[in-house]
């Protein structure tokens, strides 16, 4: 089960990174996620 979860996590990470395409895209995604968390906290 642990091995399956590790593989699933790695595949998810690869898909997420390929969707961003660039470091700049990753930064924008992280920024948007942070803004959503901030809005939810307010």
Residues in β-strands, percent: under 5%
Q: Rounded to an integer, what's the Rg over CA atoms? A: 14 Å
Percentage of helical residues?
over 70%
Number of helical elements:
2
Shape: flat
| Termini Cα gap | 38 Å
- Helix-and-strand structural type: mainly alpha
Low-confidence stretches: none
Oligomeric status: single chain
Order of helices and strands: HH
Main pleated-sheet profile:
none
Give a concise summary.
The chain is mainly alpha-helical.
Topology:
Blueprint: H1 2-20, H2 23-41
Annotation keywords:
single chain; about 40 residues; mainly alpha; 2 helices
Describe the model.
By secondary structure, this protein is mostly helical. The chain has one domain. Helices cover 90% and strands 0% of the residues. The chain contains two helices and no strands. The radius of gyration is 14 Å and the shape is flat.
